[in-house]
TrEMBL record:
It is a multi-pass membrane protein. The keyword Membrane applies. It comes from Halorussus limi. InterPro entries: Na/ntran_symport, SNS_sf, YocR/YhdH-like. Keywords: Membrane, Transmembrane, Transmembrane helix, Transport. This is Sodium-dependent transporter. The chain crosses the membrane at residues 12-30, 42-63, 84-115, 135-156, 168-186, 216-238, 250-271, 307-335, 347-371, 377-395, 416-439. GO terms for cellular component: membrane.
Length: 442
């Protein structure tokens, strides 16, 4: 049986952007920005996306296209059968399952808010509404619903499922967000939100440098879907004619653009409605902060209900195109390495995540640990492993894979890229990991 592949180059880019653009952009990015000094965070985050994110994306692409395999199979084969490197890849497969186990719970919340927007159920008391649905049996139900939608697309396969779905979803997301941002920034009082977001605050950055750095690094990896093997897996369905550096930059730019755009919806809306970052969002009150604040804002503005339907509808699509990419990693692993059919692989893995995700949906403490801490640590460790692999095991082969399909200008940047992948970037990630682990212990 021949392995699946993307139908078009644009199809690959949109699927990868679909993976990148998700709850990380619309839920986690504004939340992290609000907690870490607004514009100060924005600047550091953009720097890390450029200096660590883009080279990291390229490293994952190189592994994927070279091996035409899932992360575990890729590292195993490319190291000519090293079990240890295979285990590093397998760590990514496990990370994907852990990730989906909390992401699907948040996806369930979004689905819930989307549906509840039609009746306006949360308009009366947004805070109490969130408390009543966030954890428990109802949360399990919506988690299962969101997971079922995810599995439905993955069963369809690379071309007929993922490529077709993301080709519709991505343009829809951009159009709707632009419309929402245009509406939000023109509301009276939006200016205060814009200056919180955009006026650079050097004093804040100086006083909180390491906190901002750690949070920005974690967010940069999460938002670009790095350190799991998603981008390895998606690039494994590529042919030799793609210019990886070009595609990687396009994906980073589009993902960052959508994140920044989401900020143009969220901050002006919150400041215009409440005059400040109110309530849970201001105190960094955890994962529900943005739901409560935004739901509150939608309940107070004219035409709030249709706008809420639009807003949560967009986020459902964005979340789905990301959760699809998470489920695809272990599915590709079972298909490639164990000869399981796509259908059986998808259904059994969805069954597994149904259980692990339900544990998160029933236990707020577990959810908080997985979503807030565990995932950051796993992504950072995972990407460090992939970079060391590309830099020290693939070496010259990585450079030739990088150059395949590239023009001369991109080729000339190859040696600098490989050097950074061998040295400064893994060191940066290991240092971030150490700082995060120390913070955890202390
Ligand atoms: N990048 C996604 C987001 O910003 O929501 C989250 C994500 C997807 C992380 C896939 C990791 C991954 F493998
Ligand atoms: Na993202």
């Amino acid at each position: 049986m021949t392995r699946e592949s993307w139908h078009t180059r644009l199809g690959f880019i949109l699927a990868a952007v679909g993976s990148a653009v998700g709850l990380g952009n619309v839920w986690r990015f504004p939340w992290m920005t609000a907690e870490n000094g607004g514009s100060a965070f924005l600047v550091v985050y953009l720097g890390i996306v450029l200096l660590v994110g883009v080279p990291g994306l390229l490293a994952e692409f190189v592994i994927g296209r070279r091996s035409q395999r899932n992360p575990a199979g890729a590292l195993f084969r490319l190291s000519s059968g090293s079990k240890s490197w295979g285990a590093v890849g397998l760590f990514g497969v496990v990370t994907a399952i852990v990730l989906l186990s909390f992401y699907s719970v948040v996806g369930g919340w979004i689905l819930r808010y989307f549906l509840a927007s039609f009746s306006g159920a949360y308009f009366g008391s947004p805070g109490a509404y969130f408390e009543s649905i966030n954890f428990g049996l109802q949360a399990v139900g919506f988690h299962v619903g969101f997971l079922a939608l995810t599995a439905l697309v993955v069963v369809g396969g690379v071309r007929d499922g993922i490529e077709k779905a993301t080709k519709v979803m991505m343009p829809a997301i951009v159009v709707l967000l632009v419309a929402l941002a245009g509406w939000a920034v023109t509301r009276q009082g939006a200016g205060a939100g814009l200056s919180f977001y955009l006026d650079f605050d050097a004093a804040y950055l100086r006083a909180n440098f390491f906190d901002v750095l750690g949070a920005a690094a974690g967010q940069a990896l999460f938002t670009l879907s790095l350190g799991v093997g998603t981008m390895i897996t998606y690039a494994s369905y590529l042919g030799d004619d793609n210019n990886l550096a070009y595609d990687g930059s396009a994906i980073a730019v589009l993902n960052t653009g959508v994140g920044v755009l989401a900020g143009f919806v969220v901050f002006p809306l919150l400041f215009a409605t409440f005059g400040e970052l109110t309530g849970p969002a201001a105190s960094g009150g955890g994962p529900g902060a943005l739901f409560v604040s935004l739901a509150g804002a939608f309940s107070q503005v004219p035409l709030g209900q249709p706008l809420a339907i639009l807003f949560f509808g967009v986020i459902v699509l964005a979340a789905l195109s990301s959760s699809i990419s998470m489920l695809e990693i272990p599915v590709a692993y079972l298909v490639d390495e164990h000869g399981v059919s796509r259908r059986t692989a998808t259904l059994s893995l969805a069954g597994l995540v149904l259980i692990t995700g339900s544990a998160n949906a029933l236990n707020p403490a577990l959810f908080g640990f997985v979503a807030g801490t565990l995932v950051d640590l796993m992504l950072t460790a995972g990407l460090a492993g992939f970079l060391v692999f590309v830099g020290w095991v693939l070496g010259a082969d990585a450079l030739s894979e990088y150059s395949t399909g590239a023009g001369s200008r991109v080729r000339s940047l190859g040696p600098a890229w490989l050097w950074s992948v061998r040295t400064v970037l893994p060191l940066f990630l290991v240092a971030t990991l150490a700082v995060n682990l120390l913070a955890l212990a202390g």
